[in-house]
Amino acid sequence: MAKFNAPQAHSSAWIFQAWASFTIASSAMAVGILYLPVDGWVKGYLGMGYLFSMGSTISLSKTVRDMHESNKVMSRVDEAKLEKLLAEYDPFKAK
């Protein structure tokens, strides 16, 4: 029977680094927009564009992850079917 490797869990250091970089980048961008020497409507436009960019990035990353996970499941199903066929196959059996 085939052995499936369980996905490796992320370390706490990696999780901290991912959240820290996201927080720092988001904060720096927000501060940059707030202190930009332009009218309020321009800041609002840039802020809305920034929020839409963050939302679409999160949606895209979740979609890519879901597609990858569904491919892994389909691959496991295909491997199981192949294992069953190989287990039942007898090359010396008369037809």
Summarize the structure.
By secondary structure, the protein is mainly alpha-helical. It has 2 helices and no strands.
Written description of the protein model:
The chain starts with 11 loop residues before the first helix and ends in a 7-residue tail after the last helix. The chain is elongated. The protein is 76% helix and 0% strand. The chain has one domain. The chain is built from 2 helices and no strands. Helix 1 packs antiparallel against helix 2. The chain is mainly alpha-helical and 95 residues long.
Model regions low in confidence, pLDDT < 50 over at least 5 residues = none
Biggest sheet features: none
Mean pLDDT: 84
User: What is the helical fraction, as a range of percent?
Assistant: over 70%
Order of helices and strands: HH
For the secondary structure, the number of strands is 0
In total, the number of domains comes to 1
Instruction: Please tell me how large the radius of gyration is.
Output: 25 Å
Structural class: mainly alpha
Distance between the termini: 27 Å
- Number of helical elements: 2
Structural descriptors:
single chain, 95 residues, mainly alpha, 2 helices, 76% helix, elongated
Write the layout of secondary structure elements.
Elements: H1 12-34, H2 40-88
Helix pairs in contact: 1-2
